[in-house]
Design a protein that fits this description.
The chain has 113 residues and is an all-beta fold. It has no helices and 11 strands. The strands form 3 sheets. It has a 4-stranded antiparallel beta sheet with strand order 2-3-4-9, with no helix packed on it. The protein has a 4-stranded antiparallel beta sheet with strand order 5-6-7-8, with no helix packed on it. Strand 7 and strand 8 form a beta hairpin. It is globular, with a radius of gyration of 13 Å.
Length: 113
């Protein structure tokens, strides 16, 4: 997907991610997850920091995604690890919606808690 002039990268359409779900998107060598939390979109690394599983395949309840592999949990709005066995946070990325498309700045993760 093309870079915008403000550093934002187009990831997917908003219609591609149902409320309460996640979608894996690969940009170059980087895999990210786009999550739809009640119509608000959040972008994180897609790989669990504990077991190297795809988080977009996990269950999303509210803003908490549960890793399908070992059951660890993360807050997709902050990247914080909130359930064992996960302790290391996820990278989260600034994102926006433009013309029905989710875009994110994948070059500079936001600071984790």
């Amino acid at each position: 997907m093309a870079d915008d002039d403000d550093g934002m990268v187009a990831l997917c359409s908003t219609a591609a991610v149902s409320p309460g779900a996640g979608k894996r998107v690969v940009v170059g060598a980087q895999a990210v997850a786009v999550f739809n939390v009640d119509g608000c979109f959040h972008v994180t690394d897609d790989t669990c920091t504990h077991g190297f599983s795809s988080l977009s395949e996990g269950d999303l309840e509210g803003c908490i995604v549960t890793c399908a592999w070992h059951g660890g949990q993360f807050d997709v709005t902050t990247g914080a690890a909130v359930g064992p066995p996960c302790v290391a946070p996820l990278n989260v990325y600034r994102c926006t919606v433009r013309d029905g498309e989710v875009q994110a700045d994948l070059f500079e993760p936001m600071v984790n808690p």
